[in-house]
Every structure is written in C-alpha cells, then in structure tokens.
Specification:
By secondary structure, the protein is α+β, with helices and mostly antiparallel strands. 39% of the residues lie in helices and 18% in strands. The strands form three sheets. Strands 5, 6, 7, 8, 9, 10, 11 and 12 form an eight-stranded mixed beta sheet that branches. A two-stranded antiparallel ribbon has the order 1-4. It has a two-stranded antiparallel ribbon with strand order 2-3. The N terminus is likely disordered.
Amino acid sequence: MTGNCRFVSLNTFMVFQKNKNDEFQHSVVKQLNQKSEFDLTVAESRKFSQKIISWYGENKRNLPWRNTKDPYKIWLSEIILQQTRVRQGLPYYLKFVKQLPTVFSLAKAKEQEVLSLWQGLGYYTRARNLHQCAKDVVEKFQGVFPNNFNDLQRLRGIGSYTAAAIASISFREPVAVVDGNVFRVLSRIFGIDKDISQSKTKDFFFALANELMSKEQPDEFNQGVMEFGATHCLPKNPLCRECIFSKQCIANKHDLQTVLPVKSKKQKIRKRYFYYFVSHKSKKIWMKKRTEKDIWRGLFDFYLIETTKPVNIDKLGEKDENLGKYKLIAVSKTYKHILSHQHLKARFISVKTVKLKRKFNNDFKYYTPTEIKKLPKPVLVLQYLRDEGILD
C-alpha cells in the first residue's frame, strides 16, 4: 500500500445464530449496497491519525510504562500484558521493576526467581523467554536493546507486535503495532470483513495501519489505537454514541459491532483432570519441579495422576504402578483453573507414608512451608496451600 490505500470493504456480513445444540453457525443475512472498493487518501489517513492522537492525549490511562522511553521497561510491560489485562498485569510490572530494575539484573537472576515473580500470570514460556532474552541483550549487545524493528525481532520471545511497540515507543520508528485491539478498531471503522485468524489478514492490517499512522508521532499513534480498542471500541458493548468515529464507522452505521472483526477459527478446548498426592512428613511437604514439555514447566507441584475424566479417588492410587502404599488423610474440594486452550479440574489428596518406585526418588524432596513460599508454583497449587493454612 503506497500513496492511496486501496482495499476491499464489506460486501456481505455474517451474524452468528445459535442452533439447537447451542453451537454457533454462520449465515449471510444482508447485503450492503456500497462500492466494493474505495480509496483512502493521504488527507484521510492524516485525519484518522490526528483524531486518534488527540483522543489518546485526552483519555489515556496513567500507567507507569507510559512515563518512560526505556526500552527495557517498554519491553517488560509488553511481555507481561500479552494475554493479560492491564489491571492484572500492573502489579507484576511493578514487582519486576522494583526487584529487577535493569536488563542486567534480570539477566543475572536465577530462573526460579523469575518464575516466582511471574507466578500467577500463566503462559510461563513467556517468563523463560523473557529471562533468556535479557541474557542475550547483555551478552550480545552489552545491555543495549537494538533500536529498530527488524533487529528487535531477532531476540528471543519478541515477535512483530512487541518489536513494533518497542521500536515506535522507545525509538520513534514509524512502524505499526497490530494486535486484537487494532484488528477490532480498524475492521469496524472501515468495514473490513477479512478473517483475522488467517496470517495473510495480519499482513493486510499491518499495511493498512502503517498507511494510517503518523510518521511524526508513531509512539502516540500506536498507543492511541491500542488504548482506543482497550477502553472505548470494546469487544462487547462498545461506546459508539460518544465515539469520535461514529459518523464514518461502517460497523456503527450498519450495526456490525458484534460481527466485526471476523474470526472463524475456534481452538478446541482440552479437558484435564488432575489428582495430586500431597505427602506430609514432620511438617514438611513432598514436592517436585515440573520438567515436562507441558504447562507450568519449571514450577513446583506434587505427585500427579492425570485422567481424561473424573475417577473414583478411593482406588486411584491402587491403579498407579509408580505409587506405593499410603495412608489417606483427606481429600480436597475440586479446584478449577481455566487456560485459553485447556480447562483443568484438580483435587488434592493428603496422605502419609507415600513411597514411589526408586527411579522417582530423586525427583521429589520434602520442603518446609518457608521453603515452599519461595518456590514458583501454579496458582491452583498456591490456592490449595493457602486454603489448608500451609501458606498465608
């Protein structure tokens, strides 16, 4: 896209109707009598950019990473806020900045310390990539982040979105960010019905956003579009009546707010049932570090038997070939934990005198409550320990 920006606008739109099985199906319900293509002139692009930047200046939230150009802090905030709302991510950002204020301190930290700080955010691969990226920046770049979009993408865990955010905010490079907020804002305003689950659609929006963006204020433009999507052009119940784009917004004109952006691909949810055996010995508890290529790698939990459906707890241990005899003390309530692609249900079985086959002996160790407090743990395990009064 150069000069005038030319793209296909919405010819048909689809709504989602519930069938008898409560599943969603597509049906074309209306034709819009409008041109299939239109031109976005340079003047129109500039007007869009000016509106967003002006709105952002008046309505932006006061967040600590917006008061700095330090690429370390911008990067840290962007990684924390991936798949995480600002309200939840803010305390984690403040903890990291206080305990690990520079890329050098993060690079020197032990993995267990990083995972402990990250505990509760989920997606722990992000934390491990964060740690490794800091090491790479220190070792390969003497602690100085690359100052451009292309070189930033070569770092561990930094994709095009994060690279664009750092490059534009810290170094004012005119390169657009594209995330869920950007998809939503642009697809609704310009009536774009391209399926955002397809990789080519991201390229389309990236090109469009770069045409629209202010080359003089790329930092304000990018943050403005993201903030507009996060606080105004909401996924549900967008604030259309007081919207600065209400007159030209295609979605507002044709009641397409619930349809746009289009996303056809739905990820299948995996259901998992966890049965944890919690062994007690002299006020210590038996735990191990998770090393498998699965959720929570690097975190600590208990001996686990996993099933694909609920089972009878009384005979559960008898069927496990690695678990020896034990004395049952108590069984917890069911704890539920929802991830983006997995739904977990866990129960904790308190026991005494557990023995495992010899090959597992080195994997487990008895820890005091003070030691357990310092270990990185899944939120689900932490909640159980608090409910039992083992941790406060």
